[in-house]
Design brief:
Layout: E1 19-23, H1 28-38, E2 44-47, H2 58-67, E3 71-74, H3 76-84, H4 88-98, E4 102-105, H5 114-124, E5 129-134, H6 145-157, E6 162-165, H7 184-193, E7 199-202, H8 206-215, E8 221-226, H9 230-237
Parallel strand pairs: 1-2, 1-8, 2-3, 4-5, 5-6, 6-7, 7-8
Length: 261
């Protein structure tokens, strides 16, 4: 029975309001049980860091995610490892062999020149849905707000489906301070100046997730979500937690607010 007034959520094969989980080695059996119940609130699955390369039965895992209509892709660290060893052509072939058609281009560990990342995007976008990550995993590196916005816009104009704001699985770099606090001034500028439906904010903890839900709206795109947290996150999006309790009218604050499938 539906008798509560809740925020309007996107559903089905949605293009925003995305929940992107980080899989750091969930066994196939356990993953199957989780997806049986919660696949409808998971949109994207990142096989974290470079773990896909050594994951047993990786093709079986990829196929399982696709069976539940979840888009799998490999973490940006594996891309950077391949770039470092000049193996990008082999990497793209590897992804196609696995049946993965999403590619993350990042420079969180390496300082890959922007032109080199754009060259990869130009080459890959005909065969892959490309996501570009902006920001460094080094918490001591500060990136000017203007540079954040410029780089993110350049990637979208180059044909990327989404841009990801670096936050690590610990929430201690990129859009976060080393103590885990959100760089709120940066987020305010990104939300104000860009198409927020094209940004996936890495938000590994409930505290981070609630910040973005309250700042952007229930249909904000969130990444690096732990598998065990997907139901709690959906409850937060629906105003069913104290910190997001008054969200029933929150769509009015959402940029380009009307939910679409």
């Amino acid at each position: 029975m539906d008798f509560l007034k809740l925020p309007k959520r996107t559903s089905g094969n949605r293009t925003y309001g995305l929940t992107s989980i980080a899989d750091f080695g969930t066994p196939i059996g356990r993953l199957t049980n989780i997806l049986d119940d919660y696949s409808h609130i998971i949109d994207i699955a990142k096989i974290g860091i470079g773990s896909a390369y050594i994951t047993p039965n990786i093709k079986k895992k990829v196929d399982l995610y696709k069976e539940y209509n979840i888009k799998p892709y490999c973490g940006g660290t594996l891309f950077e490892k391949c770039f470092y060893q000049k193996k990008i052509p082999e990497y793209l072939t590897y992804l196609k062999t696995l049946g993965i058609d999403w590619l993350e281009v990042s420079n969180g560990t390496l300082d890959i020149p922007l032109k080199d990342r754009l060259n990869v995007i130009e080459h890959a976008k005909e065969e892959f849905h490309v996501i570009a990550e902006v920001g460094s995993k080094d918490c001591n590196l500060e990136m000017d707000i203007t540079k954040w916005k410029e780089e993110m816009q350049i990637f979208l104009e180059a044909g990327c489906e989404y841009v990801i704001t670096e936050g690590r699985d610990s929430g201690t770099s990129g859009i976060y301070q080393s103590n885990g606090q959100v760089k709120s001034e940066l987020i305010e500028e990104l939300v104000k100046g860009m198409d927020v439906k094209k940004i996936i904010f890495e938000a590994p903890t409930s505290k981070h997730q609630m910040f973005f839900i309250n700042q952007v709206g229930p249909n904000v795109n969130l990444g690096n979500v732990k598998l065990d947290d997907v139901l709690v996150l959906e409850a937060q999006r629906n105003g069913l937690r104290s910190e997001t309790f008054y969200l029933e009218d929150a769509d009015a604050n959402y940029v380009n607010q009307t939910p679409t499938h």
